[in-house]
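debug: dumping io for the single-chain case to check the tokenizer round-trip. Nothing else runs in this session.
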Amino acid sequence: MKPVSFYLVTDTHYFENELGAEGKAFEEYFSREQYFMKESSDILKTTFSRIAEDKETDIVIIPGDLTKNGELESHKSFIKELYALKEKGKKIYVITAGHDYGDDSFAFKNDVRISVEGADFKKLHEMYKDFGYGDALAFDEPTHSYVAQICDGVRMLAICCDSENQPKGAMDERHLLWAEEQIKKAKEDGCSMFAICHYPIIPSVPVFDLVGDTKVKEWRKIASFLADNGVELILTGHMHIQSINEFYSEKGNRLIDVCTSCLTGSPAKYRKITVDENSVLKVTSIDVEDFGCDTNGLSVQEYFDKQFERAILGKIFHALGKGKGFVKFLKNLGVKFIKSATVGTLSRLLFIKVDKNLKKKKLTELISDIGMCIFAGDQPYVEGTPEYEAVYKFLKRFSFVIKKIEPKLGKNGVKINLEEMLLNTIGNNKGFSDANAEFKLK
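debug: decoded output
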């Protein structure tokens, strides 16, 4: 791949505060939300200000979920920020995604959730015409996918698979044919090409292979298509996670998927990506800096992480709170147990031994730690750590259940080893970092 350098910012989820983010309904909603709403403007301005200081790198790429939930006023304010960054010499390329249009846009005022005007999908490419769409070498109207010449000898295939009247996260045969034609044209014109897509192509962590809406549909087919057509690098978001993954097609061709976290929520990173004259890809992660908010004495990262921990447990308890009658009674018991139990309590109930230093740890703390580590990338709970051994023993205790459900989880002839999936999800065994890594490209 020819030399190029740019910033990658994903899932900005910008929200215009004048729409309303206050009251009881907002606080109840926010208790289960990973990222910040009221602070999104300050976070974005701080990040764009730092990017603007880099006079050597003039390209910024943002692959989707630009706004909180498609609010028209949020788009207008976000676009103003894009123009401000553009005036400082940056070329900006965006694609839109599911959080950028629709009729379910909302805000919060007077203790209630209210509906607000949302953006029309058909008008998004015109709204963002100065940020990729207007200068596109090719434009696919049904999906709003496009091709951009981002610098001499390098083109970007912007894949939008989260468009109106299309299955979310899918590329149909017509869309694939269009993409194939664009890749072929780039080769004919002597250009190398990489791609962006809101959805990860490769599951960010192994267990996400079993979860819908965490990657493109038929991901192995799409990954093979890109790799076999000469696209070796794709930049993604959607999952609010820091991950880098490799996939090899049956023909032996490689695809590297660099998935980056939500800018406005833990782990709150963005990336700088360079390819040098020797085709060495370098991925560098950058922390969101102090954005002027009162963090109650916490560091910026601690402030982000505290909200993420609150959201993880909030989602669990909210899910357990649903149901009626005896089911609700059992779920309430489950909530009480999770809130009060330690790892030692659970280990005694299951007749398994855990490290003595782990016994006094609250179960809620272990759950949130593992969750945050998964999304932060470089998961530390590899073989030999107390946490790994505890999860391993727990899975072994329920191996008879796991073996029964594994055949039902496998699809299209793919065999599932659930134990291995889960253990490789809590520990990074890939041999390279999810945060900062280097790869030699073709």
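debug: round-trip ok. The mean pLDDT is 95.
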